[in-house]
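Section 5.1 Outputs to date
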Amino acid sequence: WQQQFQNALKNGDQAIAYRKLFFAWAENRTDVNSVSQTLSVVQNNNLKEGLDFAVKVMKMKEHQIWSRAQAMTVVGKMGNKDHVAAFESMFEDKTQVTTIQWNIIQLQTQINDISLAMAAQLSGQQPKDYGFDALQTQPSLIYAYHYLGFSTDEKRVAAYKKWNDWKAAQEKKK
């Protein structure tokens, strides 16, 4: 997106009006390019008004998997503890997002992996503590969904056990 456009969304007397117009337009877009570009503008410019749009996209199974994954990282970056439940509702979604080579290991990333990483982040925990392979040495990759997978199913199972144990401990504190 053009820098002049991004500046108009962030600065000046008309910024609020431009953001309203932009998000009204975005709400009616379903093509992958428009959705992805909107999410990029939201994330790169920290536009909190785009958070509801991102939540909507991450839950829409008819959207491209990459758009949903991107939306999840937007919500993970800009959201708060109130969004943890939305991520927890996606813990059973094992849809494959991507497979990449990371150093000498192969990472497989599923929707539920991204959900777990973002839920941990928004609940004040360190996602790298959940065994995400790439985050062990590069925790700054937390918002790059490609790297939020596991090299083995055993690591994935252990991560969910850790979440369940943490969740149970939180319930006991209440």
